[in-house]
Design goal:
Number of strands: 27
Distance between the termini: 76 Å
Low-confidence stretches: 523-532
Helix content: 40-55%
Structural class: alpha/beta
Oligomer: single chain
Strand content: 15-25%
Shape: flat
Largest sheet: 7 strands, parallel
Number of helices: 21
Radius of gyration: 29 Å
Length: 640
């Protein structure tokens, strides 16, 4: 009997720069869902990848002095490395610069043109380069991009348009007859009220002011609009061909779910379904718009200095600890948060104490009292029933929660079972039973119940923490690891032996770990320079260089490389700058001296100090840095 197909996708990552941990949440979430579906017996196809065209990429590449293809090859490699670092089991990693994708996109556009759904006109509107999006006057918020809040610029150019307005009624009817198409409900209301009801405008689908994109069929002065090109990956990755469908496409389309961020819902629930309607293809069954993962209370950005990278976290805490934090800390319908302090707190409380301690002491007791041999569970008491009942109920509860993408709640249910097992230890007191030879059989039953409960936990954790799941099953000495095996309690075989009790997660010293993290953040990593492009005078004029006098200076706690300088910059308000020069200068060397500061650099928090600027210094040798002091120029003077 063939397995039921299940197609799950992430949004493809934009190759502007290395993705931070907030971007990585989506791939881990999708991977957990894909793994669980495989465990349920589905034939899963899980696709992710990179979005590599557009004006922003062309500009980034020019600034780096490389070709757009060289630029996206580097960043796409970083994105793929992070997917692999996080132990994700994607079946296809698509790139929109893949030859097969580009050829399929051109065929799709030829079909839309032949159908009469595309026409040439002139576009005039507000364009946001970072978002690669056009907006009307009414869509702007305080004159800025409604999606990212950045500046927009007026653009006027010849362009091709897709007759999106033609399909508005059909889209409304589809959403009404498929109430779970946009999920959760709050996202659906947002799309209907803010975008669909006011009336859909025809969509600009080409650009002519830059070259980095897929050439428009029949008019190579134009390239296909990056968002349209990117959305098509969901079918081109399955080998979609308007004239001759692939077996993969026929098998897996329509997608069961697109997992995307809430900020790109408009593209996936309006543009994308209408394009499919125009092609005469089925629509995806569901689009799930997940919330953001914030750094503290802020959205992550390099300018704020609050960016955290997944590979750095994996190196420090381990892959499964990072996966656990991402999946457990993100609420179902509101933004989650990540800080180093909360990672350490959850690592110690949930992973080291609740889970790790349970597994470690249970196996250690079985080794101590029975030489590692699993005992029969013959001597039952009423107190056992609650544990067994909870274990049996956890799989149905987890399944129901995952069906509605409540991944954090599903993990909570699994850890509730671990907490119940820990409570069972306190209730039954195996160490006390071991002192009475007549209670040895009861002790064997208690430890059997704990080992079987741990087996349930290990299997249920497999989609979320796969390496930890395997380690637990190995330690309890079993290869019985299917979902079917936890439909009943008692699959462990008496007479088999457990392995050695090895700590899964060793407790972290919070203060020491934070100090190590802050010290590493205080030292910018050297980056390979692939070539710096020349700048013109206007670029240089954007940098404000100001002479400042050091009025106070002190070391920064727990950061050996940093000094906190208080500067007189010619204004009434003292300026604080954190500088990594403590190895070469003491506070008394600096107080009273005048330095040059990049004064309009965006603030960045280093080791708890908000730094407003950067002091100019020169690296004479690898181990010799000299600050650029000035004399005879008053504090506050701007240099040019």
């Amino acid at each position: 009997m063939s397995k039921q197909p299940y197609y799950i996708t992430t949004a493809i990552a934009y190759t502007s720069r290395k993705p931070h941990i907030g971007n990585s949440y989506e791939i881990v979430l999708s991977d957990a869902l894909a793994r669980f579906k495989r465990m349920q017996g589905y034939d899963v196809f899980f696709q992710t990848g990179t979005d590599e065209h557009g004006q922003k990429i062309e500009e980034y590449a020019a600034a780096a002095g490389v070709s757009p293809k060289e630029y996206v090859d580097k960043v796409a490699g970083e994105i793929k490395d992070i997917c692999d670092c996080l132990n994700t089991t994607y079946d296809k990693f698509i790139r929109t610069t893949d030859k097969e994708h580009e050829e399929s996109v051109q065929k799709i556009f030829k079909k839309l043109i032949d159908k009469g759904d595309v026409y040439k006109s002139e576009y005039e509107g507000w364009y946001c380069v970072p978002c690669e999006s056009f907006f009307t006057d009414s869509q702007l918020i305080d004159g800025k991009c409604p999606d990212c809040g950045r500046e927009v610029r007026k653009e006027k150019e010849e362009a091709y348009f897709f007759k999106m307005s033609k399909y508005q009624k059909q889209l409304e009817e589809y959403i009404e007859s498929n109430p779970n198409f946009i999920y959760p409900e709050s996202r659906k209301k947002e799309m209907i009220n803010n975008f669909i009801k006011p009336g859909l405008q025809d969509l600009c689908i080409s650009r002519s002011t830059f070259k980095w994109g897929i050439p428009f069929p029949g008019d190579e002065k134009h390239v296909i609009y990056v968002w349209v090109d990117a959305l098509l990956n969901y079918i081109t990755g399955l080998g979609y061909d308007p004239e001759n469908q692939s077996e993969m496409y026929n098998k897996y389309w329509p997608a069961d779910v697109h997992i995307i961020g809430k900020d790109i819902l408009r593209f996936h629930t309006i543009y994308w379904p209408i394009m499919l309607m125009a092609l005469g293809e089925p629509l995806p069954k569901q689009v799930f718009g997940h919330p953001w993962l914030l750094s503290g209370n802020d959205k992550m950005s390099k300018s704020r200095g609050n960016v955290i990278y997944a590979d750095d976290l994996c190196d420090r805490f381990g892959v499964d600890a990072v996966r656990y934090y991402l999946l457990s800390e993100m609420p179902h319908a509101q933004d989650g948060t990540i800080t180093y302090e909360t990672i350490i707190e959850r690592f110690n409380s949930d992973l080291a104490n609740t889970l790790g301690n349970l597994v470690n002491r249970t196996i250690a007791m079985n080794n101590k009292y029975f030489g590692g041999v699993i005992q029969p569970s013959d001597v039952k008491e009423d107190i056992d029933d609650e544990l067994i009942s909870m274990a049996l109920n956890t799989l149905p509860e987890v399944t129901k929660l995952l069906d509605t993408y409540k991944v954090s709640d599903a993990l909570s249910k699994i850890f509730d079972l671990a907490k119940r097992c820990n409570k069972y230890i306190d209730e039954t007191m195996p160490w006390a039973l071991a002192k009475d030879e007549e209670k040895k059989a009861r002790l064997g039953t208690v430890l059997y119940n704990l080992l079987e409960g741990i087996r349930f936990i290990a299997i249920l954790l497999k989609p979320f923490m796969p390496e930890t799941s395997d380690k637990i099953l190995e330690q309890i000495g079993t290869d019985i690891n299917t979902l079917d095996s936890i439909a009943t309690f008692g699959a462990l075989k008496a007479g088999d032996s457990v392995g050695t009790a090895t700590p899964l997660f060793s407790r972290l010293d919070a203060e020491k770990t934070l100090a190590e993290i802050e010290a590493s953040l205080a030292t910018p990593e050297e980056e390979e320079i692939v070539g710096l492009a020349e700048i013109n005078y206007d670029d240089f004029a954007k940098v404000e260089l100001r002479v400042c006098e050091v009025v106070d200076c002190k070391p920064i706690k727990r950061a050996k490389k940093l000094l906190e300088l208080t500067l007189n910059d010619g204004t009434k308000t003292p300026r604080t700058v954190a500088s990594g020069i403590a190895k070469w200068y003491s506070p008394e060397d600096l107080i009273g001296k005048k330095v040059i500061v990049v004064a309009n650099l965006a603030p960045r928090t280093l080791c708890g100090v908000e730094s407003h600027g950067m002091i100019l210094a020169g690296e004479i040798t690898e181990d010799d840095v000299k600050v650029a002091f000035v004399e005879g120029i008053p504090a506050g003077t701007q240099l040019s």
